[in-house]
What does this fold into?
Amino acid sequence: MEMKCLQQELSTNAYPGRGIVIGKTKDGKKAVTAYFIMGRSVNSRNRVFVEEGQGIRTQAYDPSKLTDPSLIIYAPVRVLGNKTIVTNGDQTDTIYEGMDKQLTFEQSLRSRKFEPDAPNYTPRISGILHIESGKFNYAMSILKSNNGDPSACNRYTFAYENPVAGEGHFIHTYKEDGDPLPSFEGEPKLVKIEDNIDEFASMLWASLNEDNKVSLFVRYIDIETGEYETRIINKNQ
It folds into this structure.
């Protein structure tokens, strides 16, 4: 698979929607994940990321402007033991609860499908990082309508064992801007992962469309110790 330039992928797409990146640093020492949200409406743009336990939650920046919390207020990141769950909706909780009952990542998502936001039917994208005994693997999932037909749900899971240092994968909700918004197509994109969390976070944030970007979360996890560093950037300060 051709390696894409993440900076270029973001800077040339005005509206990839919400996106998840997972991979491993070039030095092979850290597991990496990033999650960003964008918005076109006042309701979607009126959000910030806040820390909640070991994870994060979306929160209304100005509560008086919040009109519909159903698809925009959720916990994108939760930690279950040695597993870090990252998603673009409340399926974070579904995965957490399922895996806590010994279901697999894929099994946990069987009860969910794309978002009920016709005509876009926004895909649900999810990722999970598993770190144990100095080893790291991850998986990504997308649940999407059948080419805009909500009567069918297409389910794709991509699992990455023993990830290569310096490499990661990027999946996002929308192929590009549009009306209705066209869903992401194909496999998660192969991208480069850098060693420095601040440089990586700065690159991601600077590459997102200035008008549409809302919030960014980046976490680097030490594969040997499980200790982590987190960066959160909110457009609304």
Notes: The longest strand covers residues 135-146. The two ends are 39 Å apart (CA to CA). The mean pLDDT is 97.
